[in-house]
Amino acid sequence: QQQVKQSPQSLIVQKGGISIINCAYENTAFDYFPWYQQFPGKGPALLIAIRPDVSEKKEGRFTISFNKSAKQFSLHIMDSQPGDSATYFCAASKGSTLGRLYFGRGTQLTVWP
Amino acid sequence: GAGVSQSPRYKVAKRGQDVALRCDPISGHVSLFWYQQALGQGPEFLTYFQNEAQLDKSGLPSDRFFAERPEGSVSTLKIQRTQQEDSAVYLCASSLDQGDEQFFGPGTRLTVL
């Protein structure tokens, strides 16, 4: 059973536009929610992460919005660039499982110039 | 400042062969994770080490999968009697300690014919 559900599966955005990827979870024990970026042939790399004590975190063009009551979180990429074209994974972990990450299925983002 | 390295990068095995995949974590990192990433999917947890101790192996899909980290540094994931369903990218990640950011290697792409 997928513990973290991610949508959409693929996303095409015009350069300069906003990319939005959504994730939902059921397990209220999750206490850490990272987003990873993966380029072909590379391992995932941490992009930005949030803990449930805040509703939003912004780092440059990347923002995580977190809705604890709805058990949802999303990644917003502002001013999307062709170099942002990659696969994005949301994930979650809980302290009781020693940092083990539960990943969503990924969103393949394509930014057209 | 080398990152996590994995070898080989690509491995082709005939069904029934045994394979061994190596992970060199970032020096000084206590925690080490193995994940399996099927084509078009997010990484799935396999096992976790803290130093040389394997604290969680609940994600290993069968008893054909075995992992070790005898000196608390390099780790090897061994798959015996490989099957076609074992074809995937095997990712290794390390973190300074439990719950810290995980740094991923580039993965080993295993193809079982």
Describe what this molecule looks like in 3D:
The complex is a heterodimer of chains A (113) and B (113). Chain A has 113 residues and is an all-beta fold. Chain A has strands spanning 4-7, 10-14, 19-25, 33-38, 45-50, 56-59, 62-67, 72-77, 86-92, 102-103, 107-112. In chain A, 32% of the residues are buried. In chain B, the strands form 2 sheets. In chain B, strands 2, 4, 5, 6, 9, 10 and 11 form a 7-stranded mixed sheet that branches. Chain B has a 4-stranded antiparallel sheet with strand order 1-3-8-7, with no helix packed on it. With 113 residues, chain B is mainly β. Chain B contains no helices and 11 strands. In chain B, a hairpin with a 6-residue loop joins strand 7 (65-68) and strand 8. The A-B interface holds A 6, 32, 34, 36, 41-46, 49, 89, 91, 93, 95, 97-106 and B 4, 31, 33, 35, 40-45, 48, 50, 55-56, 59, 91, 93, 95, 98-107.
